Amino acid sequence: MTLSEELTWRGFVNQMTFKDIKDLDSQKRTFYWGVDPSADSMTIGNLAAAMMAKQFIDHGYKAILLVGGATGMIGDPDGKSEERDLLTVEQIAKNKAAIAVQYKQVFAGQSFQIVDNYDWFRNMHYLDFLRVVGKHVPLRQMVSRDFVQSRLGEEGAGISYAEFSYSLIQGYDFYHLFKEKGVTLQLCGADQWGNSITGVDLIRRIASGEAHVYSTPLIVNKATGKKFGKTEDGAIWLDADKTSVYKFYQFWLNADDEGVEDYLKVYTTLQKPELDKIMKEFKERPGERLAQKTLAYEVTKVVHGLERAEAVKKVSETLFGSGNYSALGKKEIQMLSQELPVVKTTTHGDIVGAAVEAGLATSKTEARRFLENGGVYINGVQASAGKTTFDKSDNLHGHAVLRVGKNKNALVQF
After folding, report:
1. Of 70-74, 159-163, 177-181, 223-227, which has the strongest mean pLDDT?
2. What is the DSSP string of 198-249?
3. What DSSP designation does 360 have?
4. Are strands 185-189 and 212-216 parallel, antiparallel or unpaired?
5. How far is CA 78 from the centre of its chain?
6. What does the domain layout of the chain look like in residue ranges?
7. Whole-prediction pTM value?
8. CATH homologous superfamily, domain 230-323
9. How confident is the model at residue 138 (pLDDT cuts 50, 70, 90)?
10. Alpha-carbon span 119 to 109, nearest angstrom
11. Is 78 a residue whose pLDDT tops 70?
12. Burial of 306: CB neighbours in 10 Å, binned 0-12, 13-18, 19+
């Protein structure tokens, strides 16, 4: 497929400055795409745009990946109802380093260069910025922006000059990279369209140059109609310390049937023949959830690497499928210890007591009832009513997985 065909098939079509999407096929350009270090991790919202950028690289485009050290000192006001709290220089430095690591993981095996806009802003004087940038940006254009209007309205919280000027800083990024790196295309999420257009105008006004913007649409959960990636616990992060590999995998495993094909197209690099085959099997046997299992594995592999993807797949299949508990190794046990309640006992410890301590039963009476009715499992094996203590055969790398009922699990450490 050509790039335009690939983007169309995957659903990466939104606003663009090109007259025709096929214009993308006629010339291999240098593009830039970036993330502000407002946190020490990207989310799966950022990941959607990153996966689109990967398609451009695969089709011969040169990539500049920007970490917004300068813009991060102000904070993007777009979509925010009130002023952001400023981060410290130390926080920004920490966040920049973390995002750069994620760039290297997500874009592993591809060619790209990482840049930081703080490098060209750190020595720029205020008067220079006004003369080079401010002189070429009409105030009417800035005031007409939706987020400015909403903040200045009767119900708005107001806006500082710093946040009002944010789009000028991002616009200058595009101009600087146009001049220094030959960048003629900016990729962005749907919410960054207005900021990105500022750079196109600057390049035209200052350098009489031609530049373009291409944006990816907002990913929507078809089952709820809401922005995809928001849960009751908040955003889904790429950093394993913020969203564990296990919870990350489970999020994708629980994807809605209506949208799973779209998510496979956006968040994986699976090609059309393979993806079509998966969806055909999924529609024939939806109960087996092949589409969700493939999605969870493939996205986890992109974000956390092959080794972790294999480990979490094995853990998930063991807990919720037909996986063999004896196949769990020390890495998988370590992963479980971070996700399940952990109780300590001996290899001859009391099963009923462990179930209560782990919160799998409300009382010893309830735990005994589960045991007598065949509702207690050790390493996936149903415990007999007469089995009241653990024994050496239950020992799995110094642990055992205790389950009560259908899905209440705990890890017993001997």
Report:
1. 177-181
2. HHHHHHHHHH----EEEEEPPPB-TTT-SBTTEETTEE-BSSTTTS-HHHHH
3. S
4. parallel
5. 20
6. 3-216, 230-323, 342-413
7. 0.88
8. Tyrosyl-Transfer RNA Synthetase (1.10.240.10)
9. confident
10. 26
11. no
12. exposed
**Among 54-58, 152-156, 256-260, 368-372, whose mean pLDDT is lowest?**
152-156
116, 66 contact by CB (below 8 A) = yes
d(CA 410, CA 254): 21
Residue given tokens 């709820």 in the structure block = 224
Residue 24's φ and ψ, nearest 5 degrees, are -65, -25
Cα(109)–Cα(94) distance, integer angstroms: 25
- Residues 121 and 114: their CA atoms lie apart, in Å, by 16
Q: What is the largest CA-CA distance in the chain?
A: 85
List pLDDT tens digits, range 18-51.
Answer: 999 999 999 999 999 999 999 999 999 999 999 9
Are 295 and 267 a contacting pair, CB within 8 Å?
A: yes
Separation between Cα atoms, residue 368 and residue 286, nearest integer Å: 37
Burial class of residue 215, CB neighbours in 10 A (0-12, 13-18, 19+): buried
Q: How many CA atoms, within 13 angstroms, populate the side-chain half-sphere of residue 274?
A: 9
342-413: in CATH 3.30.420.10: no
Check: CATH 3.40.50.1820 for 3-216?
no
Joined tokens for residue 264: 């496979």
